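Render Hemerythrin-like domain-containing protein in 3D.
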Amino acid sequence: MIELGPALHTGYTEIDNQHQRLFDLFNQLKTPASERAELLPTSQVLQQISEYIDAHFSFEEQWMREVGYPDYDAHQREHAAFVEQNLQFLREYHFGGSLTEEDIARYLERWLVQHISGTDMKVVQYLQSSD
């Protein structure tokens, strides 16, 4: 199971809460099917992840525009590439591709951890240096 550890805290409560919600959704994919009878089917979890990613990225991008973050365009391009990758996962999963829930969860987790610890933390550093 993955969690938002202290190294991934941005110090901005709403952003941290949204990141934790993404990890919670990813964890549903990592739970073996035999243990998640009460949880949503994988296709619904993937759809929820896709919808939540859209909402989170919209929130984060609005926040960056409001604070005048100078690397907004590069950050937004990362978001767009991730959204496209997630859509590819949805298509492949729905059409019987070879991806497993674990494959998808592993990719999502790795990407989000790298994005938070790198790209998102650059926004935090910018804000801290602007104070």
